[in-house]
Amino acid sequence: MTRVGFLRLLVVGGFVLVLEAMCRTGLISPRILIAPSEMALRLAQLLAAGKFNADIAETLGNVAIAFVLSVGGGFAIGAAIHALPRLRRAIDPFLASYYALPFFAFYPLFIVLFGLGRGAIIAIGFLFGVVAMIIATLNGFDRIPRVLVKTAHVYRMGPVSAALRIKLPSATPYLFTGVKLAIAYSFIGVIAAEFIMASSGLGYSIAYAFNNFDNRTMYALMLFVIVLVTIVNALFHGYEQRLLRRLGC
Amino acid sequence: MSAALLAIDMPAHADTVPGVHAEMRGVTRVYAGLGGQSGVHALASTDLTLRRGEFYSVIGPSGCGKSTLLDVLAGLSRPTGGTISFEGRPVDGQVPDGVGVVFQEDASFSWLTVADNITFGLRRAGAEPAEVARRLDYALRLMGLADFAKSYPAQLSGGMRQRVCIARTLVLQPRLILLDEPFGALDAQTRLIMGDELLKVWRETGATVMLITHALDEAAMLSDRIGIMSARPGRIIKEVTTGWPSARDSRVATDPGFGRITADLWSVLREESLKAIGQGNLR
Ligand SMILES: Nc1ncnc2c1ncn2[C@@H]1O[C@H](COP(=O)(O)OP(=O)(O)OP(=O)(O)O)[C@@H](O)[C@H]1O
Ligand SMILES: [Mg+2]
Fold first, then answer.
1. Most informative mutation of B41, B64, B69, B101 for ligand 1 (most atoms within 8 A of CB)
2. Which helix (H) or strand (E) holds A142?
3. Taking the CB of the first residue and of the last residue of chain A, which one, N or C, has fewer CB atoms within 10 A?
4. What CATH class has A56-247?
């Protein structure tokens, strides 16, 4: 392990230990926060009992669908907008101010449009992630060296072949930024949407536990979300680092 | 390595005028200005004839339009005026089959290994795997990259990346090879060696070579003929014939004729270079 990695572990471990001590000594009331060890224990019990398996599967499915749609759709839309500079100039301000919109204020609209099911939730996750991917795609395509585009012409490649075999790989480091944001936004969008408009799923289960004063379940599920997102991001980060090192970025 | 490996098939089209491989007549190029700015007049009315199988170099002051000349000749950008032909056919907005280009900037594909970079065009053309391997092997050895076949460009020096791009072009066995300051990133010794290698490839393949360079000695050493460009808007204002035998290498630099050629080139180029940096009146 690197020195930095060790230090990082120390910070996190120290934080957890301090929290544990404060809860155990009664400095923090169990009505506010339960001890981390208790969260982990409860989570283990819940997972072993399989009580939330269906909710977990549903949320993961929603996130996965929203993520794939964001990345695929965002890339396609971004590539299309890049090819149409006039359209791009026209919609640039909307893209730039998109994330200033308080999405969740419009949730009734999503329910009207997509019904009270997974559709509305996936739609929110998608709309939350797609624009990050569009912006990343535009940025990546802007930075493709002109000499590579010329090289594609020398190889007499058509527009589609050039886009897939030269432009896409050349823009990859920038696209990764979009993919990373799309993961984060899909999680945020889906879980938050489940909070307010679902009757199942992780977000709903956390809200349900909260409303029923079931602190132990609530914190156990929160811990699950934290661990899940951390693992997904770590896996992705590792892959990105390997790729970027290869590309010399 | 045998000459046969890289030997060129007979050209698809005969030259209209015997011996003329590529030709520019009255070619101009103006880059459009952005939003109200006046455009950049990069090429003045330029005439250029490349004879089949010759080694032609272009020298000129910096920013005079050398890369622009290459772009329009290769069909990478349309000229504002004038006509261009290659093997008797007009060049119009498309790179003709049989033309290979090595650019001034690094054009290696960072996401592919050296070997995959070099074979990119061959694999696209659907060449036999055995043939791909054979040409790859040859190109790797010719360019001194044999130990780096599995490396990625990011792991190479700038000069080695440029050699990857040269190899990538040569394996396709172009009949006309256009090179834009390909040795710019190399140190002086490697430059000389690579120049000799280029001469060898040129002799073995019988290809026509146009080399853009800012190094007078390089032009004087390698070329059959050298075109000197004026300050921007550039055009070829003088051509110098070296008269070297085709079996030559960098050692012609010790020939008494070499000094005379270099001096010839410099006497014209000096004035244009002064103009290019805005000191034409200080001469
Ligand atoms: N795409 C472009 N758009 C606008 N102006 C351009 C473009 N490409 C080149 N120019 C201009 O045209 C002129 C000639 O450029 P060019 O690159 O052909 O010169 P060069 O002789 O190759 O220069 P160098 O010696 O630096 O390689 C320069 O003034 C340059 O700024
Ligand atoms: Mg140039």
1. B64
2. helix A118-142
3. N
4. mainly alpha
**Where exactly are the structural domains of chain A?**
56-247
Integer Rg of chain B from CA: 19
Alpha carbon distance B145, B167 (integer Å):
9
β-bridge pairing B236-241 and B40-51: unpaired
For chain B, say whether A153 makes contact (Cβ under 8 Å): yes
CA B212 to ligand 1: nearest atom:
22
User: Alpha-carbon distance B233 to B247, whole Å?
Assistant: 36
* Residue B157 contacts A, CB cutoff 8 Å: no
Q: How far apart are CA B21 and CA A231, in angstroms?
A: 62
What six digits make up the tokens of A96? Answer: 């730039």
Exposure of B179 by Cβ count < 10 A (0-12 exposed, 13-18 middle, 19+ buried)? buried
**Helix H or strand E segment including B28:** strand B20-31
Let me know if A26 is exposed, middle or buried by CB neighbors in 10 A (0-12, 13-18, 19+). exposed
Amino acid making up residue B92: D
Whole-angstrom Cα distance, residue B74 to residue B85?
10
Task: Render the burial of A59-98: b for 16+ CB within 10 Å, e for the rest.
Answer: bbebbebbbebbbebbbebbbebbeeeeeeeeeeeebeeb
DSSP-assigned letter for residue B235? -
- pLDDT per residue rounded down to tens, chain B (283 residues): 344 444 455 445 556 667 899 999 999 999 987 766 788 899 999 999 999 999 999 999 989 999 999 999 999 999 999 999 999 999 988 999 999 999 999 999 999 999 999 999 999 988 999 999 999 999 999 899 999 999 999 999 888 999 999 999 999 999 999 999 998 877 888 888 889 989 998 998 899 999 999 889 999 999 999 999 999 899 999 999 999 998 898 888 899 899 999 999 999 999 888 888 876 554 4
| Partner residue facing B154 (CB), from A148, A157, A246 | A246
CA B234 to chain CA centroid, nearest Å: 17
Whether chain A has a CB inside 8 Å of the CB on B47: the answer is no
CB B162 within 8 A of CB B182: yes
Verify whether ligand 1 is closer than 6 Å to residue B127 (CB atom): no
189-248 of B, contacting A, C-beta below 8 A: none
Whether residues A157 and B155 touch (CB distance < 8 A) is answered with no
Place of tokens 């964001």: A70
Q: For residue B199, report the distance from its CA to the centre of ligand 1, in Å.
A: 28
